[in-house]
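Structure first, sequence second, as always.
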């Protein structure tokens, strides 16, 4: 039999050739010969057929045209192969195989001219023509001929010469235009035709063959075909009968193998039941395939078996049989438009049951989300099933909360289960589940009953506060939160505008909430409370709320000016430019003076003290702190026409600046209050300075003399000298 993508061509022992559609229905019949048909060959178009028979007859004819060629040989012709492009006029060629390999070409006068391509190595039993390459097998091995150069490019000898080539014929198959698969006996070779490099040519053909895979099989090869990067092998099997202990023919096998460089990996194996397999020989089986549809045809004397790749339903059946439910579910989801036998939901339910039986309750519950979807009846059924096996906790995390929503009784049942055995788990569910899933009053009463047994349980108290909040009983919730000193009190206060209830408790709130950012954010709309909180926080720790020091400048200026200057002095994170801008806008002189001096602008600060405050003592004190000669000069110039200022300067300048600088600049006739006392004080300060200098000088001379004597004594001491130096 030969396979084309459009039809099948089947030859019989009675010399008939039938054309069949892919379902096996006969569409045409040809009486070719009164004896056995040995070979049928089709070109790629499926329009021309070559047939040879046991009586030596060879026919090549068009299935849809009157074109025909007949030739009679004096011996049986086992093989015929037409050119793949026979339909084209310049490729009217075919080859026959008997004792010779003959090429027939049609000449320009429509005559067929034969030429011998090969002879002398026994009968030719198989030919496969692909593109410009012809492969054939004789008694010695397999040859490949390049039709372009008319050169043989390889000879692959057969491995087991003990096997009769007529009983164990060679199987040939082109995987593509350059890859030939050879199966002979129990040996398989995959050969690749390659171009020879120009530097290696010499007198050699321009192509050569490399065996890329080679391995032996367990049984004898009757046919083979490619399947992607794998091989389909039809094997002839012999086995020892258990009853008679005699070797007999077994059912043929169809194997899928993955070729490896020197071995193969079996992917699948099927034993085929065909009629009369007990009497069949290796040569009685053939394997043909349709490249486009991945259909494989196993031909035996009485049956033709069609094999095809398993569809997804077959694959899912196999996965379920192997209990690979996860893979089966994935396969069904991917192929949900093509599967006909299986339903995703049925597979999913079987998967859940399988996990429950294995004790993997959490995984089973997690899969419910995906498998049950929005089916409330199935959800409730599964919940009761988990309750029966004592695993309500496992499914609680995965129960739907929106679209769909189950009956309230389902959620209440789960909550009661946790309340009896796991307070923390119960609290988690109350936080995560919307309050409208269950009857809030029933759950509140249940919690209150448990608190009677354990009234100080923080987890139950906190949960009860959350339940009261959902029930809009905010007073009770706030009372519990304050008792627990829980941080959620801020959320409750802000959400329900309960600021008036906690105005006198702001310090208390600080004690149990360390989340400064959150507190500040919650009090954003209440700046006076926000100031109180940040002020208390600053008093407690100058660095804790440093990111809010800029905000505090405005808050102090607005609500608490007396503490603004201490804040500016103590804060190391306050932006000075921003503070100066605010103080200048509000005409805060003392704060502005401090900021100007801290920013290095001492002259402007001094000027503001003199002009705005009119306070000479502060100006002098400021000049002393800065200890800057130019600053004293500015102070003198500003004070020279103001007698009260001059008096203040005369009383305080003596130890910092030469008083003569000030006295020389006083105008004659100016009345200066308490001038005599000021001058006396200057002289007293001067005498004190002289005494201090003389005392220091005496101490310095005494220390120098003492050190000089010590040095002299040291230099007068003897020194040990080593004689060897």
């Amino acid at each position: 039999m030969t396979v084309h993508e459009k039809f099948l061509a089947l030859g019989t022992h009675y010399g008939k050739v039938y054309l069949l559609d892919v379902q096996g229905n006969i569409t045409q019949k040809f009486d070719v010969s009164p004896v056995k048909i040995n070979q049928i060959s089709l070109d790629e178009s499926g329009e021309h057929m070559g047939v040879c028979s046991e009586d030596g007859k060879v026919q090549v004819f068009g299935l849809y045209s009157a074109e025909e060629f007949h030739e009679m040989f004096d011996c049986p012709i086992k093989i015929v192969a037409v050119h793949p492009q026979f339909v084209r006029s310049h490729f009217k060629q075919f080859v026959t195989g008997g004792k010779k390999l003959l090429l027939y070409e049609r000449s320009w006068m429509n005559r067929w001219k034969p030429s011998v391509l090969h002879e002398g190595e026994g009968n030719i039993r198989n030919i496969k023509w692909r593109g410009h390459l012809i492969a054939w097998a004789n008694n010695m091995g397999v040859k490949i001929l390049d039709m372009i150069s008319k050169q043989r490019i390889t000879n692959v000898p057969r491995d087991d010469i003990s096997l009769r080539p007529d009983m164990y014929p060679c199987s040939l198959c082109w995987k593509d235009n350059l890859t030939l698969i050879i199966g002979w006996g129990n040996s398989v070779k995959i050969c690749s035709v390659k171009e020879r490099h120009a530097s290696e040519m010499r007198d050699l053909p321009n192509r050569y063959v490399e065996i890329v895979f080679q391995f032996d099989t367990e049984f004898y090869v009757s046919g083979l075909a490619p399947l992607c990067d794998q091989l389909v092998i039809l094997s002839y099997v012999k086995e020892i009968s258990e009853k008679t202990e005699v070797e007999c023919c077994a059912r043929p096998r169809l194997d899928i193998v993955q070729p490896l460089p020197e071995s193969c990996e079996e992917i699948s194996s099927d034993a085929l039941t065909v009629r009369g397999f007990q009497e069949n020989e290796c040569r009685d089986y053939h394997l043909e395939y349709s490249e486009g549809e991945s259909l494989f045809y196993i031909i035996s004397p009485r049956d033709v078996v069609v094999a095809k790749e398993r569809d997804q339903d077959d694959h899912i059946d196999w996965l379920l049989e192997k209990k690979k439910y996860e893979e089966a579910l994935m396969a069904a989801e991917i192929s949900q438009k093509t599967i006909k036998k299986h339903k995703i939901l049925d597979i999913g339910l079987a998967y859940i049951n399988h996990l429950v039986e294995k004790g993997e309750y959490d995984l089973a519950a997690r899969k419910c989300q995906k498998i049950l979807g929005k089916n409330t009846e199935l959800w409730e059924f599964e919940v009761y099933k988990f309750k029966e096996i004592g695993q309500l906790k496992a499914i609680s995390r995965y129960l739907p909360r929106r679209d769909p929503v189950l009956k309230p009784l389902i959620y209440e049942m789960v909550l009661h289960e946790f309340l009896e055995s796991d307070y923390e788990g119960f609290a988690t569910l109350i936080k995560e589940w919307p309050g409208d899933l269950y009857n809030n009053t029933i759950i509140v009463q249940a919690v209150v009953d448990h608190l009677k047994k354990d009234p100080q349980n923080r987890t139950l108290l906190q949960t009860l506060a959350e339940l009261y909040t959902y029930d809009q009983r905010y007073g009770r919730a706030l009372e519990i939160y304050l008792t627990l000193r829980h941080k959620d009190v801020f959320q409750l206060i802000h959400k329900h505008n309960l600021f008036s209830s906690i105005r006198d408790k702001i310090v208390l709130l600080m004690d149990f909430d360390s989340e400064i950012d959150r507190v500040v954010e919650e009090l954003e709309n209440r700046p006076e409370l926000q100031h109180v909180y940040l002020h208390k926080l600053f008093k407690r720790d100058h660095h804790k709320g440093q990111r809010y020091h800029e905000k505090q400048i405005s808050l102090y200026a607005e609500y608490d000016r007396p503490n603004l200057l201490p804040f500016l002095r103590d804060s190391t994170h306050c932006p000075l430019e921003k503070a100066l801008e605010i103080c200048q806008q509000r005409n805060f002189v003392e704060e502005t003076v401090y900021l100007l001096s801290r920013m290095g602008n001492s002259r402007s600060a001094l000027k503001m003290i003199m002009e705005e405050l009119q306070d000479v003592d502060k100006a002098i004190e400021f000049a002393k702190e800065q200890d800057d000669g130019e600053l004293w000069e500015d102070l003198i110039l500003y004070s020279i026409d103001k007698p009260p200022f001059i008096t203040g300067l005369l009383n305080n300048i003596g130890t910092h600046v030469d008083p003569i600088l000030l006295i020389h600049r006083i105008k004659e006739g100016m009345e200066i209050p308490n001038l005599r006392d000021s001058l006396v004080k200057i002289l007293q300060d001067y005498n004190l300075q002289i005494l201090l200098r003389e005392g220091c000088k005496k101490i310095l001379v005494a220390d120098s003399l003492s050190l000089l004597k010590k040095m002299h004594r040291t230099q007068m001491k003897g020194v040990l000298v080593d004689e060897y130096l």
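Margin note: The domain at 407-489 is CATH 1.25.40 (Serine Threonine Protein Phosphatase 5, Tetratricopeptide repeat).
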